[in-house]
Fold these 3 entries.
Entry 1:
Amino acid sequence: MTPEDLVSHVREATGLVERDELTPQGQAAVWVAPERWLEAATHLRTCGRCGFDFFTFLTAVDRGGDRGAEAPPPRGKPGRAQAPSPSVDQGEGLEVVCHVYAVRRQHHLNLKTLVPREGGSLATLSGVWRGANWHERETAEMFGIGFAGHPNLAKLELPVNFEGFPLRKDFLLITREAKEWPGQKEPEERHEEAKS
Amino acid sequence: MTGQEMAFLALGAIAAAGGVAVVTARNVVHGALFLVAVLAAIGALFLLLGAEFVGWVQILIYVGAIVVLLLFGLMLTKAPLGRGALDNQQRGIAAIVATGTFAMLTWLVWHAFGDERITFVRAVRTADIGNALFTSYVLPFEAVSVLLLAALVGAILLAKKD
Amino acid sequence: MILDRYFENAWAILGLKLGAILVLFLVAPIVVGYAEHKVLAHMQARLGPMEAGRFHGWAQLVADGVKFIQKEDIVPRAADRFVFTIAPVLVVVPVIMIFLVIPFGPGGWWGENMDLGLFYVMAISTVGVIGVLAAGWASANKFSLIGALRAAAQLIAYELPLVLAAAAVAMQAGSLSLVGIVEAQDHYWFVLPQIAGFALFVLASLAELSRPPFDMPVADSEIIFGHMTEYTGIKMAMFLLAEYAGVVALSGVATVMYLGGWHGFLVGWIPGPVWTFAKIGALAFFIIWLRATYPRMREDQLQKMAWKYMIPVALANILLTGVFKVVF
Amino acid sequence: MTPESRTITLPGEPGSAVAVTVAEGDLATREMTLNIGPQHPSTHGVLRVVITLDGERIHTAEPVIGYMHRGFEKLAEARDYRQIIALVNRHDWLSAFCNELGVAIAVERLMGLEVPERAQWIRMLLAEWNRVLNHLVFIGSYGLELGAITPVFYAFREREDIQEILEAATGGRLHFTFNRIGGLKDDLPKGFLRRSAELVRKVRNRLADYEGLLLGNQIFRKRTVGVGALPGNVAKDFGVSGPILQACGVAEDSRKTEPYLRYDQVEFDVPVGKNGDSFDRFWVLFRRMEESLRIIEQVHDRIPSGPVMPPKMPKTIKAPEGWIYQRTENPLGECGYYLVSRGDKTPWRLKMRTASFSNVSMIPYLLPGILVPDMIAVLGSVFFVVGDVDR
């Protein structure tokens, strides 16, 4: 299926898609409400036409933070017909991305949703794809997102007593705060410096 | 006292002391290792008495096989790693049984030989043992074979779970 | 005997022999160990030791020995100190005792000609496992314990084929004395009629020595050298010494049992001991070669091989030897 | 607790006791917890697997990772794209070139940048050499783990030759940093293709050594055939990719299914196994190496001349707003970069989807029920690099 067909199939079959994205590079994403997260994922897994049997990754993107207030405009092609619901609007929050692939049909899909920065929680997908288990653990420790029903949401890569959520934008790299990244600047910047 | 007698006494002392150590050791693995000393000393006693074959059988079977199996079993099941003691509540009964056995054996030996001095016969030849086993003692030998075979089959049956 | 000509006193002869065996016990493993370094290296497209002692690193193992002596003797805090200390001794002593009875040449080139030599070797060679078990347990390390348990399980697998193969040789030679067995091979080596027994004996010996492909008790990539994990310095060196001395000792026993001991062929002027040592060397080379070639087997595969193939073959071998003896 | 079972208290460590439930007719036993790693010869670095044992049979296995976590994803947010290329070639230190490639392609696609034809072919050539380089390590060390000590020396002999020519081209031995956004740092040095062609023949001739020592070895087969079999659907479920997935009989290789560079213009096969056991995994790795050599030969014949960088490159590389997921078939499996850009010269978020992470996450499924020696055979054939797991 082409990405367009795929998105419209998911939209029709589930009725959960609130917004979709199609990038110029031909990659597709569908947005669902966080409370319908598990339902949408289950459809992708079980539906014969989707056939998403390969779990690629699950992660999050911090949309807020120091630049959160700028509220970037929507990217990619805007979704069709349906207006985006407030829950998946481009506001602050943590965007959760789950990327899956169908080996036989050879198509990809990004399943996305937005959860609030504080106390954000989703149903776990570890029952849908076993591979989600570790990816959710990683996302939980890095972003502070809860995954309800996860069998073991312990820290995966960070030390047990680590505090904070490193991949959020408000978690600062302390050395970078004290000192600018010492790497060479862009050619044009150096050029400007030399001129001035 | 001849050198042989001195060696006999020394080995006997080692065996006896080892025996005491086996039962007093708080750690079962220590006990098993003391048992090695006891069995080796007894094997050496056999050698000293010229029963070379029996002596080396003692080493091969008891030290080489039985104690190894014993240690194997202990390590698989009970013995904690490294230091650490194990004990149970059967000391009293064990003491009674041991004393009884010791008394009986002493009485038996005393009754049979008394003050009689045993003249030392030089070395029993292995060939003679072989001949004896397969001529005059062939029936007991075969009986033991059958018994061992039965034990083997039984062990396999027990080990098979289904 | 050669020594009788020069020495009257039996004790002096005994002392000399013991001294010679001790020297052999200390030197032979170093030679075999160095050979292993070099042979493995050349089989693996590298050079091996090249520095110590200038000429092709001949002094590498001497240097290693010096290093081992200098190392700190560490006893883990949780270990059982007494058993931990005594275990290397328990492993080394039986190997020395095997050296006592191997005849290296005709006319007294042996420590002791025992009537029951073969039986003695079988009995003594099993004792070393107790040292391995003790070491594994006393180290208070789970990897060591697994290694020790594997060693014990391995003993059960290889001991029977080993003894049965030896029994067939004893029948063939009509003697249990190692000197007697060599003398019985005057006309032909026992490897010819006992080829199956020879294969069994070498395989079982490899298992006893924990040499590849039967090195499961010390498998470095699984259980990190098993019972040797916690040992350092001189105690570790004793384990290594026992391993390489064991290679020499069991190669020696196999030489005596199957390869005609000091009997040579074609050229008559080469003295007997040279033949013996050459044959031991050839077997040791074979053992090293195996290490370069084969991966490690699994414990249950060894058990299966021992019980399903080696023991039946050994029994059939005994039967055939018996028939052979009666008919001819 | 079933009616036929009973609870028995066993002596535990000094001063404690353990209660166990046993079925009727069974002996009461206690499981042993064993830490494999973080320092263990067979974990290739600092991976730790906590296993519980019943005898030598594994009951449960739980990998503990993170000992090498270096926060690459966070660091990438503070670096521009040129610097990121030097950063990402470090997570899987055995396939540095392929790692760089993913980021470069992702940024190029996001920018809509046209990469010169010659650069595409050179990239393919170096990526395939890098693949051989990587596979040789695993082929050698897998033998070592099973106790065959010789193949590793042969593997490193070949590796040295390959590293030499890669060094000649890139100047680096481990971290090449040869990709640039838009192309490559330099053209190939003079005579490179000839050396490369000679090396292909040399390596191919020597592959027979490995066949004899490992694939054809009876004990090796006994140790690996049927050990740690992984069904294909479970592999996909865990996101396991690369040689492990192909060993399960799934011919998934992004060089075929979603060709990047010029993989659609060269001929090669995707080897697939039957049973997904350790032997198949190893066999697939071996065959993949041969296919790589095949690709390299075709590149030699067909590489065009021309520049290796686009004529007009912006001085500052800023990826436009948007996101992209770019996957490449790395030696160890699917390596993907999920790049979110807000039009800056640094990425807003760069998620690294590494093959090893997913491969290792499957270990708790694969290990229970097998023996400790088999665990080594399985761990060694679940090809992973710890840096690639922890990032």
Note: The CA atoms of residues 213 and 294 of chain C lie 6 Å apart.
Entry 2:
Amino acid sequence: HNTFYNGLTPGMIYRYSRHLLLPDFGVEGQKNLSMSSILVVGAGGLGSPVVLYLASCGVGCLGIVDSDVVELNNLHRQIVHPEAYVGQAKVKSAAATCRAINSSINIVEHNEALQASNALDIINKYDVVVDATDNLPSRYMISDCCVLLDKPLISGAALGLEGQLTVYHHKGGPCYRCLFPIPPPAAACQRCSDSGVLGVVPGVIGCFQALEAIKIASCIGESLSGKLLILDALSSRVRIVKLRGRSLHCVSCGENATLSQQNFRTFDYEGFTQSPMSDK
Amino acid sequence: HNTFYNGLTPGMIYRYSRHLLLPDFGVEGQKNLSMSSILVVGAGGLGSPVVLYLASCGVGCLGIVDSDVVELNNLHRQIVHPEAYVGQAKVKSAAATCRAINSSINIVEHNEALQASNALDIINKYDVVVDATDNLPSRYMISDCCVLLDKPLISGAALGLEGQLTVYHHKGGPCYRCLFPIPPPAAACQRCSDSGVLGVVPGVIGCFQALEAIKIASCIGESLSGKLLILDALSSRVRIVKLRGRSLHCVSCGENATLSQQNFRTFDYEGFTQSPMSDK
Amino acid sequence: MHLTLEFGGGLDLLCQSVKIHQVDVAPKDENAKLTMRDLLAWVRSSLIKERPEMFMKGDTVRPGVLVLVNDCDWELCGGIDMELEEKDVVVFISTLHGG
Amino acid sequence: MHLTLEFGGGLDLLCQSVKIHQVDVAPKDENAKLTMRDLLAWVRSSLIKERPEMFMKGDTVRPGVLVLVNDCDWELCGGIDMELEEKDVVVFISTLHGG
Ligand SMILES: [Zn+2]
Ligand SMILES: [Zn+2]
């Protein structure tokens, strides 16, 4: 691409004109966004709106990692997947839809499960990480990896008619282990495949995740670091609460952290949480 | 369709299984949804997530009304439109995307501008109305029409880095004119084409609109009737406030209302608001 | 009396793009209560730096502006004659129409 | 002492699927303050109808449960020894993992 005005091509100036008009975002915000790379872990209920909004807004490089295939009973909430892709890789389906709405950005397909063995190599290529997974061991693993590689992490979750959202390891804020040093009992880990989820609930949370990712990648505003957004969809209530800060005793990000790249690669997250790395 | 278990076909039971598992939604909620019809006015920034989530969740009949064509500078926020549809009708593009993610529902294309002259005929065919428009006269017109036909109205708006959302004329709550009996001065009416909008902001508001529409159509939970949700995206703050009730003096829904179907059809909403029925 | 004032929906542009203002406003005389009428006059003279007609019309807010005191529409608590209390949060918000 | 207790993230299932409880809880003796420790014991005996191990472990909440007092993590206000005030809002929420 030839760049003209302040790092943006004429095509970008036309496509993103409604962003450039914003005093709080403007050319600088769009330029930052176009030079940033964001990894979305999970192309399911949360990941669908995240990848759609990150693709449309003009992030420079959008990575998607997932090893699942599209199933018909995903489609009540996973709006990025057309019926025609049932049986095919979610990453392939999501990337195709994203390319169709914005052919000018770079979309990278990681058609594999993100695991302790490959997470460092994959996450290291990106500036910002979005946790749109559906299980507890992945949440610990992704948080640990983001601490090791010093990446901000936007973490969302949805189940039933409730959703939660926060930003970890950003501007001195806490990581997942600061909040939850000990995993909950396995019996407390409800899954969408067991307990159900109203499709639009991960839609709301995913849009908020995309918003936080865009703000961090474009260096505007104030993120949800150190805060938790709680959605009760049945009564349409939203609560934003102040969380504890980073823990000096955290094994992952604390002053005497024992986490290292070497022991991360072989750490047994499924054993640690007594919970499988998939919602099947 | 043959119906088997409680009004749902085996195909529906499989597709919507994650909804059927929900104690607060379940078979009854899905059945209500599948028998309901929802009209979305506007297939733009707000309408995109609304139609995607209404299609995927299994509403029986989804109507989309808009007269615009897709432009490349819409695509930073209007995630329902692929680049291949630039230059074609938004309604056609949105319907095609929705059919691709759920071929089992009925999608009706109204490729025309909703105006006082046709609004009664179009809105009368639906149970619930979503206002996803981008201009002030349309907001008065749609509210008046919903009062005349006794339809609940889910109204969203987004501009810059802010969004607003409420439900009008539902369960005895106020209508748009109860809150705003006199239109604001034309100079106070900022438009996305002048002032810009961060693409994901209508995304968040549109998802909340879809949530409210789904709750009302499936008869679950408590809607935002009589409440206003206010989003400040820059600081990720959400405020939900209590609004005044229905006004007895409202010319539209009050005790001595002067609004009738006859004078509605010829009312000059653009003159009343000193503002055009399009954001061009 | 200490109050938190917030401006949204574009009204912040009238007060130098600052959304949240922590302010101290004194009632007219020591024994009187501060009403919304007094506060509006104070905001107009002390905070609004441009286009006051975009904030007020006559002695109240212009059409299209909602006033919320402690997350509640002022119409539910007495409107312009409502008496304010220490630490109240008053939000002025212009209705949006975009999409 | 009047308190509003809210349960979320599935913890409401332990108290008959009721999310919001308006309750009156007395401190142990008249002059003492009510602490979170006292409140946890009261909730466990008075509200939790099944699987108490899904709410508590030892004398505190189980891992994975956040306690928020007036929209603030209890770890920021003294944790289990924190003293409650009249009309406090206490939220117990289980972290979610689905998507
Ligand atoms: Zn930590
Ligand atoms: Zn009315």
Note: Residues B 174-175, 177-178, 246-247, 250, 252-253 surround zinc ion (ligand 2) (CB under 6 Å).
Entry 3:
Amino acid sequence: MTAVLEAPSESRVSSQVALWRLLLRDWVATGAALVLAFVALVAAFGPMFVGDEAAQQNLLDANAEPFRLSDGWLNVLGTDALGRSVLARLIVASRTTLSVAVPAVLLSLVIGSLIGMWAGYHRGRRETVVMRIADIILSFPSLLMAVVVLYIFSPSSANLILVLAITRIPIYLRTARAESAELQSRLFVDAARTFGTRSSAIIFRHVLPIVLPTLLTVATLDFCFVMLSESSLSFLGIGIQPPSVSWGLMVAQGRTYLQTAWWLSFFPGLAIVVTTVSATILASWARLATDPAQRWRLTLPRGRRGRRAIRRAAEKALTPEVQ
Amino acid sequence: MLSPPSPRKPLLIAAVLGAALIVSGCTVANSEYVTGGGAGGLRIVLPEEPPTLEACQSSLTSTGVVLRSNITEPLVERDADTGELAPKLATAWEQTSDDTWTFTLRKGVTFTDGTPFDADAAAFTIDRAVNSDLGCEVEGYVFGDTDLDVKAVDATTLTVTTPEPDPILPLRLSFVEMVSTKTSTTEKVRVPIGTGPYEVADWQSGQRLSLEANPNYWGGRPGYQSVNYVWRAEGSVRAAMVTNGEADIATSLAPEDGAGELAVAYRNNETTALRIQADQPPLDDIRVRQAINYVVDRNTLVKTLFENLATPAGELIPEGIVGYNPDEKVWPYDPAKARELVAQAKADGVPVDTQIRLIARTGQFPRIAETIEVIQSELAKAGLNVKIQMMDTNTQLTYQIRPFPEDTGPYLLMIMHGNQAGDAAFTLDQYMLREGYQSSWGTEEFDASIRDAEELKGDERQAAFEKLWPYEQEKVVQYAYIAHMSAILARSASVSYQPDSATGDEMRLAEMSPVS
Amino acid sequence: MSTAVMSVHDLTVDIETPNGRLRAVDGVGFDAVQGETLALLGESGCGKSMTAQAIVGLLDPVASVSSGSVVLNGTDLVTASRRKRRAMAGPELAIVFQDALTALNPVYTVGTQLAEPFRIHRRMSSRAARAEAVELMRRVGIPHPESRVDAYPHQFSGGMRQRLLIAMAVALNPTVLLADEPTTALDVTVQAQIMALLKELRNEREMAVVLITHDLALVAEEADKVAVMYAGHVVETGAVAEVFSDPQHPYTKGLLESVPVHVARGSDLASIGGTPPDLASIPSGCVYQARCPLARDRCVAERPVLHQVAKGRAAACHYSEEVSR
Amino acid sequence: MTGFLRRRAITSLLPLVAVLLGVFFLARLTGDPANLYLPVSATPEQRQQFIEQNGLDDSVWAQMGDYLWGILHLDFGESLRTGESAATMALRAFPATLQLAFSTMLIAVVGAVIIGSWAAYRPNSIADRISSFLSMTAASVPDFWFAIIGVWIFAVGLGWLPTSGVTGGMASWVLPVATLVIRPLGVLTQVVRGAMVSALSAPYVRLARSKGAGDLRVVTHHALRNAAAPALTVAGDLMVGLVNGAVVVETIFGWPGIGKLMIDSILGRDFAVLQACVLLTAVSIFVLNILIDIGYALLDARVREKVSA
């Protein structure tokens, strides 16, 4: 009955166009996408323009207040305890932050979900083993792991990513396992199985598309968790080593100044929050937009008044045609 | 120096957030919440809970600050301001032979468990702390592997004999806190029995420690009947507790913690410095070490990051320690000279491009991270390849104390040295001798002059020590001294107390009293 | 005897899509008569289920009734308040859904779910409602209802689940019962049992049944009247026997010719050429023009309205006389 | 069910041992603690003596043997730092953590169910957008901001609450719990909302409506229980995090919980205490996981059958 909503005749190109149009209709999601694009651009090109400024210390102009243009536009967000421009540091930090947080989240997402889906699909002993391993990682003090890495290896981005990824794997593993265990008993999986499809193919073709939206939602929320964990590791010395800088490190270092120079940790914190919230908004939008059964929600005019207005307009437009 | 938080913004936010709490029916908090102490009680908030109050561990800062001169007392006590020794449980002492000191003990003192304090108790305590297998902190800290021969001649006379003549034995013994003979000799105890003005009344591990005034104290009643210690790791919370009236004294604050007008800054004995691992190229070239000294802008650091609470340093001990050189020469800031020196070394084939690690301990002192970043930036400008590495305490200590890890490559280590003992010998043995536990390098001549100076007494000793500092700066250059540091505590207006340089190790409750 | 208990008039349903608004149901009208079964017949996508959903007020939020009325016992369901509708859902109007497995709540026992109508509308105690549930289960032919009342939906077979859905729908003796493809997922023997049960209950409780289906055979056996739907429009109505023996709309005729029983042995089985139009591209004239063998200029220019072609019969075709020939 | 519990307990035992051994070995990889516990001027002899006294010179296998032997006799060793029994220290800190964790989860779950269901009831509506936005923000704001700013406003600025501590009755719970609840509340609200959106569009909800069930009944009776499983999974993960200790809150508010104790013992290389803490939290996490499995079974008969099969 609702076949029309699934628009089976639409070609791939036009469905992409429709997706864009759908996005543009939703101003909140559009805004989120713009923010993310902006962050990505800043991370990619920003350091080229302000790289030197971010390292330029000026102890005599330390902790200058934000929102004053008298010291030039670079200091518009104030300066830090060493008189460096907070704005320039935010820009430089965006690259470090993304280059640690994104790989860490992706790594844990990919490993966790693959193992989780595999375990959930096969159930039985494999599932038990995998779940118990997740239990082990979860009940293991992640800080100890960090200290071990710090002690045996040297703190580097790669090690940082590794530590962060390992501690987050169980989250995806458990989520993926739960959903895939539920799915493996469904009819369409049975059907695929009776055709003799290999289990890996079933997992990728039938289980993954259904589990992925949930996993992506978890991942976007985890994004901020990872950014903040990275900052807490810097207290131990395993985090980003200065003079490199990340948002997490800025938040961590600025924390002691919350009362006297709030801008030191407020702006990087805001950057983390805004980025995460944008990612989450876009993820939940994408989740609706790519799910044929839920997509219609996005087309729903908001509020009763809006709906009535649209209906009236539509009636006017349609009336002559019908009669 | 300490800008108080602007009161407007929080109030505005509070007005919004507050509504929720009014609904939940919260009542107005008062100071009783935290300490539970009634009127007349003194409330002190420390950065961490004392791990133990075992008397022979009193050289641990977090133990000593509660224990020393409050619960237990030593034979002699060092005056932090003058450096002179003052009588405590011993009324007099003299060197009766080259290797023996004789102490006359105070009469009529009893421990809080009723046992009398006499020469037997003193001998028991010293044997327990120094000669036993307990592995006491004090033993390692002040006596090394020296065993003492202790004898109770009569009830009030004690002789202590050392294998080698020791001109500063009484000073060393000022670290040994006297405990009752009923104390276990086979294991450490958590709560000691002492002779001090206070005794432990209640220790709720993790929450609070309460002391009550010792009713039979030999030295008169202290200003407060009871004292409550609590601990909070966050400096701003400690400061807030005092400004909020939940505590009377808060220690170990940073300038930005927000204690406002209640903040009291005081000189402690700590001096910060970079130790240069001078056996590793390119740091084995003296020009590189000199260059490092030239680029540390001590004056600006002190003026800005340390908020004028420190003074630029040219030696490892501050004023007030025997051996301090009052004509302290501080390296000038001269980046051009530094670049030139590095360039010269490079021209002579010194591998100045080798990566040098700049190692620091997280939380070693307020604004350590900022300080390290400033220094790294300056060193890089001088043409050195310097990488910062922050470490946790245990890891950093492996780099600080011999035996050093192997194959480390060159590194600069941020150290902070506090000479609690009051005599430069403690510093020199550790930090200056070629094989000193915390020294990376030195010269034979320097070792010899240190050994010679340590044999001397009185003014000769002082004069000999004084000469060592300029010599180190000129000929050895193992260190880039940075600053003599200060500490901040918050003190409520109702308490009268003046901290001194020893307060961080030994906070004497008897010196505190209510403002009348 | 032939009292219309529910009249649907000019019912129009629109859907919001990313590409604009579509008309899924356009001016549909029919009467449900007490004790009779009316079949809404059509291919999938023709708007018959959406019509049912519009009547019971369970349209997806993207769809909305933009005009028309559904009058049941004197109340227009389209304009009635939510509260009023809720009060009528169950005692006056009930629906049997097609997919019994997903329609039953997996986490509750069937007893709890069967008892729900009694709890909501008659405010019965849980014990009394449970007794009613057992009674209902017995009535719809579930063996050992006392022991099975605490079982969960997944513990029943497909046919049993459908019986449970029917039991739930007839619990409060509704005036009108909508059955939306009630037998689609079932095998033939079970299908027959379910339809027999429905008929029995209809006669016993004197309900008007609206049977929504794409199955011509089912309509022929079970229904008294039929309304044939195509692309959101009713194209032909009338008594089943008459419509099937003498279709007045080319679509009805095409449908009948595609079913083996209606074709003389030996002749080719016909099928309707083309596919139903996309809702987004319904032509302005006759909705069936693209597939109609009789289509001519007038069909492109002018949309035929449903008009009486014989007593009790109507068709929406300009050339209905030609069809029967 | 008992069969399930027995099997579950057996399969859980092995990971428990794995965690213990893992912690045991990894902890010893972080360097011996002699430097921390001996004065900097300690001689090599004293160092050696310390190492021997604490059994750190034995092979790791011998140390592990001692440790396991000790566990069998309920002897978990002594703290290097305080000289107290490690078990005593861990057991003393754990109730404080549990109290905090339970109160936090209770508030988070109740709040998330109410807000999440309300938002899911009209997906994409203004109310949904606002609550989603707030919960996402809540889930991504650094917790120590809340803590420090909370102290600053409510304790210092307004004087309504104590800055910190545990002995101040209910008032001293407000800031720690508020700080802790923010993230779980945000995350759970999102999860509940998502699950409720799909549950509310499920056919059984339609059936319920066709029976004349009102909005409240549809949400509370029909949708919520179906949406509970994913929420339970996430709530479980969040609870695991809380049981492992809320380090920020414990540090800032001086809450004597297990998180701070664990960090202190890691930094202090106080192996015995670390092992005791990990044993305690690992056991409770396994118990928690079993409770969650039982929760699934209670929610859904289909799971129940698989469990008892």
Note: The first helix of chain B runs from residue 8 to 23.
